[in-house]
Amino acid sequence: MRALVGVKRVIDYAVKVRVKGDGSGVETAGVKMSMNPFCEIAVEEAVRLKEKGILKEIIAVSIGPAQAQETIRTALAMGADRGMHVKHDDILQPLAVAKLLKAVAEKEKPDMILLGKQAIDDDCNQTGQMLASLMGWPQATFASKVDVEGSNLTVVREIDGGLETIGMKLPAVITTDLRLNEPRYATLPNIMKAKKKKIDATDPAELGVDVSSKLQTVKVVEPPTRQAGGVVGSVQELMAKLKEKSLI
């Protein structure tokens, strides 16, 4: 079996995000970037499936500017076999990303597609679902456990009410949740080997995909500073404060 794993380059989770002065977006110049944490989990799961002998090849694909190749190299150092870079410098909406991944999948013919459930920069949580719909494949979102037996896939997924176990036939789209695994650190020897692994390059035009945005960002602002709370000495005082602020 072969797996296609999506990896996204985002602002590092430990960096405080700053809004641009003109309110057109967030500042990325000179900011530390890294692989989206949920994408790391997807790569780790694919590598574990390969170590079990279930997968034969893992293809890491990233859509973005030239620097996205660094993210692909990280996936290669973790254990992916080769990379695919879809070159695009502008921000893409989830539907455009899903269409590009569909085009790549039609070319690579994977048996499964693994994606992080969401990216920490936009928190859209839409790409996996849209991709499954476009491909006409079953989907297992928010996966916290994945078992593969032949062409049968069993996934335990996290839902509001607890856990849900579903079964389906491959090929399928899987989106990964936090508790699925703990991604490994790439070792120095694997980092060196990753430099020699192949990364193919393409772009939306070559894939025949229209990525023009149907949405327009009007303005980006930081959330308002939260006002300090107060301490009350009794339930009666609390009720009085709530009435004073016309909250009850």
Automatic annotation (TrEMBL):
InterPro entries: ET-Flavoprotein_bsu_CS (IPR000049), ETF_a/b_N (IPR014730), ETF_b (IPR012255), ETF_beta_N (IPR033948), Rossmann-like_a/b/a_fold (IPR014729). Its main location: mitochondrion. GO terms for cellular component: mitochondrial matrix. Pfam families: ETF (PF01012). Residues 23-211 form the Electron transfer flavoprotein alpha/beta-subunit N-terminal domain. SUPFAM superfamilies: Adenine nucleotide alpha hydrolases-like (SSF52402). GO terms for biological process: carboxylic acid catabolic process. Heterodimer of an alpha and a beta subunit. Belongs to the ETF beta-subunit/FixA family. This is Electron transfer flavoprotein subunit beta. It comes from Guillardia theta (strain CCMP2712).
